[in-house]
Every structure is written in C-alpha cells, then in structure tokens.
Task: inverse folding
C-alpha cells in the first residue's frame, strides 16, 4: 500500500502540537498537506484529557497567542499579584501587575479545557487530524520521513515531534512528587498566586479557574511525604496543607481527590535530527515550579511557524536552513528557562543552611531592589525577548 504523502506531519496533539498546527494552517498555501497525528490515549493521566488534574499558569504572552488562535478556554482565573516566600525564613518578594503596566501577570487554566479548545479549533483549520495509538517514525532518508500509525503508513518531508515525554531518558530525577488538588480558603484573596519554597520542594497556591475563592494546589515534596499525605483523611490533609502554607489565606480545606505526579527534568540533547524537530515537552520537560513548560513550548511553536513560513511555499526544498535558524533563535530562551527552573526547584532543598539562607536573602534582595525583580518577572511573563 502506498503511504499517504504530506508536506509536514506533527506527532502529538497536546497544547503545543495543536497550537503549531493552527499557526501553520494560517501560513501554508495547502493546510490539507499538514497532518496532526494524535494518540488515542490522549493524556498521560488517562484516556480523557478533561480528567487531567493539572492546572496551568499561562503567562501574558501565551494568552495573547492562544486568543489569536481562537483557543482561549472559557474559564480562566487572573493572576494579578505573585507572592514568593520561603518557609521558616524571612525572604519574600511580591510581584504586582501594575509594576509592569499589564492588566494581569498571567492566568490559570485547566489543562483539559485548553486541550479541548485547541483540538476543536484544529478540526476546522483544514489540517488533517489522524487519531491512533502506536505512532512512530520508522525511517528517514534525504527525501523525507516514514511514519507508522498502526496499520497506516505515511510519508512527510518534515516531522515535528510534539509528543511530550516519549522515549527520552530523564536528565534529572528530582526525588520530588507533585500533589495536585484544590482547596477552599477561609480568607481568599482574589487574583493572588503564592509560591512558597519549602526544604522539600515548592508549594504553589493558585486561584482556581473554575471556582472563585478556591485554590489550585501544586505541592512538591519528597516521595515518602507525598505517599503519607495521600493516605491522610481529607481533614488531616487540609490541616497539613494549612500548616505547610501558613495563614496568609486563613485555613485551607481540601476539596476532592489528591493526584500525585513524579517530577523529573528531561532534555533532548539535540532537538533537530535531519528532517525531524522536537518542540514543547518532547524537547524539554521541566519541573512545574514557576509554571514555564507550556509557555516555553508555545514559544517553540510560534518561532518554528515563523521560520517555516517560506519553506511551506516551496516544500520540495530541503528545510535545513529554516531548521538551523530555528535552533539559533530558540537556544538562548531554552537555556535560560531550563536553568532558571532547575535552580528554583532545588536551591531551597539543599538542606545546607548557608545555601538556603542565601536563597532567602536573594528573595528579600529582589523585593528591595526592583532592578533585580524586573528582569526575572519579565522573563516569566513573556519569555526572553529576542
Ligand atoms: C503538575 C504539573 C503542573 C504544570 N504546571 C504548569 C504551569 O503552570 N505552566 C506551564 O506553562 N506549564 C506547566 N506544566 C507543564 C505543561 O503541562 C507542559 O509543558 C505542557 O503540557 C506541554 O505540552 P506538550 O503539548 O508539549 O506536551 P503534552 O501536554 O505532554 O502533550 C503531548 C501529546 O502527545 C500525545 N502523544 C504522545 N505520544 C504520541 C505519539 N507517539 N503519537 C501521537 N501522539 C502522541 C499525548 O497523548 C499528548 O496528548 C505543568 C506540568 C505538570 C506535570
């Protein structure tokens, strides 16, 4: 059987692959020559992405991109103030939206809602969506790439891996698990997000996108503590959470089940291999501290779409020059974001009092010195400006 022939195939219809498909559909003369191959088991947390317990802090730059693609979820909670502190030490800093003349620092959305919104938009974009499990690249030569999806055979001149964490060994095991749940605060503060560093990992308390006054909890801690916390009754879990977070929101009462995710960083050493490119989590999977994974992945997608604009018109030409340009443009942002995230996830957990004290002083220094705070906040808000 002759393989189906495409100019470009995107493997993975998560948020990054779908956003790329929508961007390319607008630039390509023939969107039907683009395939988006999505696994049937659409989420690593189960068959139904709407059940995915993740909430995502989406920065201002990502919001603008998603809105322009018609894929902004209906329910989103604004973040206008971010409070960063260290448990048991003095250091803390507060970042406010009006320091940067933006209406909000970011928003919190449900992974499942974002996934659905993007998937719906792709269906009407003209891109061909092919759903099936077991998709893999089978071969590559100078003219293109062979792909298998079950019994289906495809050939594409360029393949984009947006298939998340697949077959790449982890670069760092954090020996931290993230506990995900939601909680009701007795003294809620609308528009406030909190990142509290503990000596086992960060605890994020974010406004929940679906219920005013409720918080999304991402509690990173040692695997042993995570297992013990999951086994607690709802009352005892709520008590432990309030004790760890402190009294800034009054008492926190957990609502619903507690999910648990092991945390690791995986970095693909080479994001380009001939006619294959990896973007989003397929290129780098980060610790959730500071909420950078999706934001970085969307910047990957936007840059790739821009550099491929010319090639989409002449797809018989080799894409090598466009891909080199992509690598040059993405290198600095990728490096800074990966290093910053890795540092933040570990610097408060060294169990070395001097290092932890210095990290606390750095937070305090940031609060006192807007000149230090501004570049960090700008990077987290919009990514590195190129
Ligand atoms: C607890 C937690 C909290 C987080 N919080 C934030 C946050 O606040 N802000 C933020 O920016 N990021 C956050 N992230 C990171 C964010 O979830 C990811 O960076 C983002 O989902 C990456 O999107 P992606 O499309 O690259 O990959 P994924 O979301 O992993 O999607 C990949 C898709 O590819 C599909 N797939 C897999 N293999 C194949 C295959 N062989 N063929 C076809 N399809 C395939 C999968 O089914 C999936 O749908 C968080 C992550 C976690 C774990």
Result:
């Amino acid at each position: 059987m002759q393989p189906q022939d495409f100019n470009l195939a995107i493997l993975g219809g998560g948020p990054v692959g779908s956003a790329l498909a929508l961007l390319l559909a607008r630039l390509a003369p023939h969107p039907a020559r683009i395939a988006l191959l999505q696994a049937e088991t659409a989420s690593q947390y189960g068959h139904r992405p709407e059940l995915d317990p993740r909430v995502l802090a989406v920065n201002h730059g990502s919001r603008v991109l998603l809105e322009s693609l018609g894929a902004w979820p209906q329910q989103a909670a604004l973040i206008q103030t971010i409070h960063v502190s260290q448990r048991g030490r003095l250091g803390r800093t507060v970042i406010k939206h009006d320091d940067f003349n933006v209406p909000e620092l970011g928003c919190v959305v449900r992974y499942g809602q974002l996934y659905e919104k993007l998937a719906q938009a792709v269906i009407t974009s003209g891109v061909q969506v092919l759903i099936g499990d077991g998709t893999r690249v089978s071969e590559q030569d100078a003219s293109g790439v062979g792909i298998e999806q079950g019994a289906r055979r495809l050939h594409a001149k360029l393949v984009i891996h947006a298939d998340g964490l697949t077959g790449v060994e982890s670069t760092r095991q954090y020996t931290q698990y993230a506990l995900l749940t939601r909680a009701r605060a007795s003294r809620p503060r609308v528009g406030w997000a909190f990142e509290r560093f503990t000596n086992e990992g960060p605890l994020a308390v974010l406004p929940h996108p679906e219920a005013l006054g409720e918080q999304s909890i991402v509690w990173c801690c040692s695997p042993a503590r995570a297992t013990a916390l999951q086994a607690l009754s709802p009352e005892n879990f709520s008590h432990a959470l309030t004790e760890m977070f402190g009294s800034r929101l009054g008492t926190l009462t957990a609502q619903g089940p507690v999910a648990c995710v092991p945390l690791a960083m995986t970095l693909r050493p080479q994001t380009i291999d001939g006619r294959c490119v990896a973007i989003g989590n397929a290129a780098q999977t980060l610790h959730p501290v500071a909420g950078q994974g999706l934001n970085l992945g969307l910047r990957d997608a936007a840059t790739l779409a821009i550099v491929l604009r010319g090639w989409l018109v002449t797809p018989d030409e080799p894409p090598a020059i466009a891909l080199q340009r992509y690598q040059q443009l993405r290198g600095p942002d990728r490096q800074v974001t990966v290093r910053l995230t890795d540092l933040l996830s570990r610097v408060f957990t060294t169990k070395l009092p001097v290092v932890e004290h210095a990290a606390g002083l750095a937070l305090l220094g940031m609060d006192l010195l807007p000149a230090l705070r501004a570049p960090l906040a700008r990077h987290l808000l919009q990514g590195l400006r190129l």
